[in-house]
Amino acid sequence: xxxxNTEIKIExxxxxxxxxxxxxxATVLTRDNSGQVIITHEGVKMWCNQAFFYENKxxxxxxxxxxxxxxxxxxxxxxxxxxxGDSKLAYAKGNVxxxxxxxxxxxxxxxxxxxxxxxxxxxxxxxxxNPSDTIISDIGRFYIELKKYRFKENxxxxxxxxxxxxxxxxxxxxxxxxxxxxxxxxxxxxxxIYCEIGFFDTNNDNGYFIKNAQIDFSDSNIEADSIYFDNKxxxxxxxxxxxxxxxxxxxxSKGHYAEIFKDIDxxxxxxxxxxxxxxxxxxxxxxxxxxLMTGNEENRVIRAFxxxxxxxxxxxxxxxxxxxxxxxGLAKLxxxxxxxxxxxxxxxxxxxxxxANQITGDSIHLLFNTNNDELDSLFVFNNxxxxxxxxxxxxxxxxxxxxxxxxxxxxxxxKIDIVKNAESIYYLRNGENELVGIDRSxxxxxxILLDNNSxxxxxxxxxxxxxxxxxxxxxxxLKFLKGFYFREDEKPxxxxxxxxxxxxxxxxxxxxxxxxx
Length: 517
Hints:
The chain is mainly β. It contains no helices and 35 strands. Helices cover 0% and strands 63% of the residues.
């Protein structure tokens, strides 16, 4: 006899038989018309049509409509079952069905270790969690107390809206949470997600993904160190090393925190935010602390604020904020007047550099051709000032006025009109580039034609007064127009320069999702 605490008990059997020649050391138990053979052992109860009981080994072989129940946690059915009362290990095979209160597992063979309360299979299984989740895998283990399955190899988790494919997955039957460890694809009607570590809440249709995480929408792609996604509202939040590629609007956005509201075509990105808008022969880059983009392809609006900058190969600028409306092709460079709160601060107006020209004013507007995205026009409102360093000397050509209008040809500034209260300082040179005098005058209007980064024609209209000075007579108080502020050291000459005065950035730590039994 086995020890009392591991003794298998036969509760009911229609027929008992012993035949040592046919069945050495076994008692054969067979059902009758009144019911099945019933066997119990330390909290489990088993039913079958026939059993072979090896009493000296405390071992049962059960055949036909086998059922094993452990309290209210496990309901196991199969065609055949082996059970060892000493090791408390059960082995079931043939149409195996394992039920727990929240799910049902189907497989061809299953081990159930009662000592550690784990069940496992290694020849394919299918788990169904009502009402929507189905999981297929080659290998699976059920941690009964945790209500958790761990699946391995060729995993397919099907929910109401997603198909999830992974190499290693933990699934909690009560909460519907699925944790991924290894390359994982989550595919829905209009969204594909990839990660190598993450989880998905199948009950609430949202998830969190890290390690090479990316989301592919039909018209855009998000990559980041970590991404949270809520499929119900088509919302994503991304953290660290973000890259968002928009194939419809031909833009790439980068930063270290972003939120995307897909249904309303809205996104904002911060922490060294950068948006690159691609054109046929060039690209425009906008950088600021935070960039907000709203609207669909035809109505896209980009708002960059706090230390905003713009850069392309032949034009750059900066302002407190930059607003760009794709529908009308209008970009606005806007500054906040800090002197309203602190009169001792020197106001830095919005600024634009076009070739060798520095252009400032209270506000600056750039108009793009909406057909080809090329620069079309320039508008500077109030206190317009152009500064162009004299090519050979230390002086500065300067033109100021109430307003400025400019025209671009092939993305190059070719024509400028200064309107109302125009003033100018211009260094005159002959054909040998010798300085012949310095002109300072006032006019009602000034027209300028530019070619190859130099002034080709300079025409004053309704000149009020003026004088041409020899260099030695051009006194210091005459050299600068009102509002002169040369800011060449602020000019971005590359994409890298856009970030040169950003505060130090400390990236948020991304915590890994550890495997826990």
